[in-house]
Specification:
194 residues; 2 domains; two-stranded antiparallel ribbon; elongated
Length: 194
C-alpha cells in the first residue's frame, strides 16, 4: 500500500515526461519499494497511523520513558494504572519535545515508570509526522526517477547507483546532484537508538 511519499504525477513532473498508463502498476511498485527503503534507511515512518494503537515498553524505575515517534499520545499506563498528561504533580507526565513533533520522550516529576518488563503501555498515533515532509517527498521522487531512468536503456547515463534492490541512473549532472542531496536528506532524518 502506498504511503504517499511521492506520486506518479510528481515523478512525471520531475522527469518532464508522461508515463504510459500500461506502466502505472510498475511505477506504483517502485514507489512502494522506495518508501520501504526510506523507512528502513532512516528507521522512521513518515506518515503517522490514522488510528491510535498500543505499544509496550520496559520501565526502568526512572522519571523518563523514551518512546517511538508519535504525533498524538492518547493514553499512558504503567502497571495497568493510567497516568495523566501535562500535570505538574507526581502523578502526571509531559511529552517532549514540547513544541514539536514527533514526540519521543515522556517525563514525570515522580518516578512513575516503574521497573518491569513491558509494563509501560503507550497508546498513540505512531509516526514521524502527519504529512510527509517536503524534503522526504523530494527524495522519494528523485529515487523513483532514477529507477525509471535505469529502465530506459535508450538514453545515456551520467552515473548509476543502487537503492535497496534497484539500480538507478541519472542522465544529467543535475539529476546526480539531486540524488546526492536525497541521500543526505535521509542521513539527516536517521533515527539513532542506544
Amino acid at each position: 500500500m502506498l504511503k504517499g511519499y511521492t506520486t506518479r504525477q510528481e515523478v512525471e513532473n520531475y522527469l518532464l515526461i508522461t508515463i504510459d498508463a500500461s506502466f502505472y502498476a510498475q511505477v506504483d511498485a517502485w514507489i512502494e519499494s522506495v518508501e520501504a527503503y526510506i523507512d528502513r534507511r532512516t528507521g522512521r515512518n513518515f506518515v503517522a497511523d490514522v488510528a491510535a494503537s498500543v505499544r509496550k515498553y520496559d520501565g526502568d524505575g526512572s522519571n523518563i520513558q523514551l518512546i517511538d515517534d508519535a504525533v498524538a499520545i492518547t493514553k499512558v499506563e504503567v502497571d495497568d494504572e493510567e497516568i495523566v498528561p501535562d500535570s505538574s504533580t507526581e502523578e502526571g507526565y509531559f511529552a517532549y519535545p514540547a513544541n514539536d513533533l514527533p514526540k519521543t520522550k515522556l517525563e514525570t516529576d515522580g518516578n512513575l515508570f516503574a521497573q518491569g518488563r513491558q509494563n509501560v503501555e503507550v497508546t498513540a498515533k505512531w509516526g514521524y509526522s502527519v504529512a510527509v515532509p517536503t524534503d522526504i517527498k523530494r527524495a522519494a521522487t528523485v529515487f523513483v526517477a532514477g529507477i525509471i531512468n535505469f529502465s530506459d536503456e535508450g538514453k545515456g547515463e551520467v552515473s548509476s547507483e543502487t537503492i535497496g534492490a534497484y539500480s538507478v541512473s541519472y542522465k544529467t549532472t543535475q539529476e546526480r546532484d539531486d540524488f546526492n542531496r536525497a541521500i543526505e536528506t535521509l542521513k539527516a532524518y536517521k533515527k539513532f537508538t542506544f
